[in-house]
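Design request, tokens follow.
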């Protein structure tokens, strides 16, 4: 999987509130959001890097998903996909 696809998914799913200085990323399946104020890390890049650590990339649909919505291995050959793709049998 190319880094460009992961970066693209991250950019699509991350928003910035200029008024509060907050960055937010939402899970592509359940919608759970993780937010962070930029001033905690003092730079945009460090803030975004922290947010990236909270999400996984689905290798089937290309969305970022939280740990609860991510399947590493379901025992049936489905590896590194979100719950929705795993249920649909996508690989």
């Amino acid at each position: 999987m190319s880094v460009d696809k992961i970066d693209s998914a991250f950019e699509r799913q991350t928003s910035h509130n200029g008024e509060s200085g907050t960055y937010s990323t939402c899970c592509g399946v359940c919608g759970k959001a993780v937010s962070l104020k930029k001033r905690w890390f003092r730079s945009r890049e460090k803030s975004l890097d922290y947010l990236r650590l909270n999400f996984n990339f689905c290798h089937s649909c290309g969305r970022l998903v939280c740990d609860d919505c991510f399947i590493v291995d379901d025992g049936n050959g489905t590896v590194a996909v979100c719950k929705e793709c795993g249920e649909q049998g996508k690989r």
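Comment from the thread starter after seeing the answer: thanks! DSSP finds three helices and seven strands in the chain.
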